[in-house]
Amino acid sequence: MRSMKQRFGLLLAVVTTLGLMLMVSHQPVQAEKVTYSVTPVYPDNQTDADLGYYDLKVTPGQKQEIQVRVQNSGTQPIMLDVTPTTATTNENGLIDYTGTNSKRDSSLKHSFSEMMSGAQRVKVPANGEQTVTFNLTIPTEPFKGMVLGGFYIAQATKSQVDQALERKGGATLTNQYSYILAVKLTESDEMVHPSLRLNKVQAGLLNSHTAILANLQNTKANSVGKMKINGEIRKVGSNKVLYQSKRSDLEMAPNSNFNYGIDLKNQPLKAGKYNIKLSITSNKGRWILSKNFAITRQEVAKYNEKAVELPENNNWWLYVIIGIMIVIIMVLIILLWRKTRNTQD
Question: Which residue range(s) make up the domain with 80?
């Protein structure tokens, strides 16, 4: 009888769970569609109209307008943020035009965002278009090489109230889509060769895993593409490679830096003195960079504690020794107690 009740209870639980799942899945999910597109409006000093991005030849002190055209194919008007940004290099080793890395590189003299007028929020009518105009002012001091930046275009962030109203009656799957129009400014055809520098090297975390982070800097006003980096970590004075990382298809913006990470493959950090060697090839040069660095006990404790997927300390032998010592001590105590008792008798 009890078995029958248990089976009936289990069946009721399964039916109830399925019913709840069906109720939840009944809510409609609507994915947002991308209803806008962006095209550049080339000025007269555009070097090539087939590039798909702005490549402008400028002169010191020059002032001009740069325009961006936005088309809305949707049935509702949309609000867009159009932001001039300076190109940087992100932690993945790629040129980034999003403007999320706001820290200025120490080698950068003239940034694109400083030459441009500020960001604009524009309303684009349904089934219509809007031309956004920015003012460009070139510094009076001549510059060599290139200034690299772009326009980052994204739909304006909606308020929490608007988002709640849209979700009423069904769930909404929201994706943030954005467009980037790159801009390259040059004053002459003179080539400036990139120069790579290895700055601070330190222990850290890479995607929550133990790693060595080497800050790599491009100090010249020229980009670097098709980079291949072979990174090796050794103990100071040793030829044995402890950790190695090989990556390709990397790139760097002019006058920028990023942390090149060497993953320790889920091995814990160990205190000591080390050497890093980076062998770099690209479409614009070759470099071999080397630097000694130290990992302190404080860094080991800090990052090993925060890291994920580290192997647990295998100290079973220590517990075995402690257990044997306890047994020996207990045996000695018993023998001593018996000897003392026999002596008293």
Answer: 30-186
Amino acid, single-letter form, for residue 73:
S
pTM passes above 0.85: no
Class of residue 103 by CB neighbours under 10 A (exposed 0-12, middle 13-18, buried 19+): exposed
The torsion angles phi and psi of 296, rounded to 5 degrees, stand at: -90, 165
Q: Tell me, what's the pLDDT at 320?
A: 63
Do both 119 and 36 map to the same domain?
Answer: yes
**pLDDT at 324 (0 to 100):** 85
Does residue 57 form part of some domain?
A: yes
Give the amino acid at 200.
Answer: K
Residue 176 DSSP class: -
Helices (H), 66-159: 112-115
Separation in Å, CA 55 to CA 63, 78, 98, 237, 262: 16, 29, 19, 49, 35
Beta bridge partner(s), residue 206: 209
